[in-house]
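Sequence decides. Consider this:

===
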Amino acid sequence: MKWTGKKVGLALGGGGVRGFSHIGVLNVLEEEGIHIDLIVGTSAGALIGGAYACGLSPREIQDKINAYIRSPEFEDSKLKSIGLTFCQEEKNFLKKAQTYIKNRFWFAQAFFKPSIVPSHDFQSLMNYFLPEIDISETRIPFRVVSTDLITGKRIVFSEGSLRQAVQASCSVPGAVAPVHHGDWLLADGGITSIVPVHATREAGADVVIAVVVDRDMRTDVAIETAKDVLLRAGEITTSTLEAAELESADVIIRPQVGDLHWMAFNRAGDLVKIGEQAARESLEEISASLPVYRRVVRFTRRFVGK
């Protein structure tokens, strides 16, 4: 049966540590023989997508995560200490008090510094996952989405330093310092495109599979202070923009990440399994969206054997 020539693009959304569920999605797509022609990533999606586009397997990416979490760089970093502060394990009174004090300390720091996580901490994370190459040299065509804080525009990188572009895309406002690039001051791609469906379509994809790892917007929240109102307003804006962009996706995969904090590194292993489950539940929808040739190849591999 003749191949239609349609390109399949994968849009990997942002969500901090929740983005580790992208690994599970990629693992299932590989197992099912579903070929991806191009990848576009925002924030955590740029980190995982970039590693995969460079040729690392999902298993190798997971191994790198495990190695990084055990590394001296992570042990001594603020990434770990902040992540432990926000993890959802039960805390006794003393730990709750320590968490309260730390949160207030880091919040105070934000008034005097561009970020609470030192640049070198975050750079070590980039170095663990990504080679120092040009984006145009990846094995699978790849794009990185960031946001220019000066103009407010979405910036999509298809060339230039892979590490620098991904670091810019992962620069969560307030937590990680923005990246200077020419006249741009680059920050998290999620500010303008939390799931880069439009950028994937613009890059040439005919079929777009979007993976959403943003935290669920809870309705049982207390909105009592000015800070509560500001945070809630930001959540609503992000959710509205995300919904509008997802309307252009052919398939939407939603790993059940709940309201897990974006720096909860202790849940890395669980998130991979959550991604696998979500991808398997979406296989029928994915198959229906694929070009005819690829559907035949996939089911031949599945029932006859690779």
Remarks:
- Residues 88-108 have pLDDT under 50 and may be disordered.
